[in-house]
Design brief:
It contains three helices and eleven strands, in the order βαβββββαβββββα. Helix 2 crosses helix 3. Strands 1, 2, 6, 7, 8, 9, 10 and 11 form an eight-stranded mixed sheet that branches. Strands 4-3-5 form a three-stranded mixed sheet, with no helix packed on it. The chain is globular, with a radius of gyration of 17 Å. It is an alpha/beta fold.
Length: 215
């Protein structure tokens, strides 16, 4: 049984972390069900365990939170759906690589329901979309923008943190960091791609995709 919780409005980042810590402890103790928690955060930057100080280019713009999830710097803010996944990876095979791959597949499946082809790239965490309407790179390769980020942590084989998908955030807010340490590619959103998708539309697709991948 996986419990789904959707919190309206904006949830403070540290409040969310504390809630996840408690839920993960309860799941590990057998006192609570697995959980997917859908939230939005106020504008903020978060630093993963691989973040580099030089990638925080505007440290005074928004609050900056150090976190123990994997990955580098990322942005959270209104218009971005964050899905925190508190799942028992131990009973799902104890294969962290496979679990991350399943999260990527979940995002790709969700995007596919809106006729968007999300792709993963070696050496680049997250999910990307090609932008044929943009100028190509000097080497002739097609421009690509990031639409979703992934960063997790495990404790006693229970996952927390998770994924974020850009629905309609202010994309200029990403300019205060080098997202995930990648300078040669940009960021995009469902609305930026020309799709009038609401947060509720995405939530429906996320639930359907989750069932397909994880249950």
């Amino acid at each position: 049984m996986v419990e789904w919780i959707t919190t309206d409005g904006l949830t403070d980042y540290r409040t969310a972390e504390a809630w996840m810590e408690n839920r993960v402890a309860d799941i590990a103790a057998g006192a609570a069900d697995e959980c997917v928690w859908l939230v939005e955060h106020p504008a903020s930057y978060t630093a993963g365990t691989s973040s580099k100080p030089a990638d925080l280019t505007d440290p005074s713009r928004f609050p900056v939170y150090d976190t123990k999830r994997g990955g580098q710097y990322t942005y959270h803010g209104p218009g971005q759906r964050v899905a925190y996944v508190m799942l028992d990876v131990g009973k799902r095979g104890r294969d962290v690589r496979r679990f991350v791959h399943d999260l990527e597949t979940w995002v790709i499946t969700t995007l596919d329901s809106f006729n968007i082809r999300g792709e993963i790239r070696d050496g680049r965490v997250g999910v990307w979309v090609q932008r044929p309407e943009k100028p190509r790179h000097p080497d002739g390769s097609m421009a690509e923008d990031k639409i979703a980020a992934i960063g997790i942590r495990l404790r006693k084989w229970i996952s927390f943190h998770g994924i974020s998908i850009n629905v309609e955030p202010d994309l200029t807010h990403f300019s205060g960091i080098v997202p995930c340490g990648i300078t040669e590619h940009g960021v995009t959103s469902l609305v930026d791609l020309g799709l009038p998708v609401t947060m509720n539309d995405l939530d429906v697709a996320l639930k359907a995709g989750f069932t397909e991948i994880f249950e």
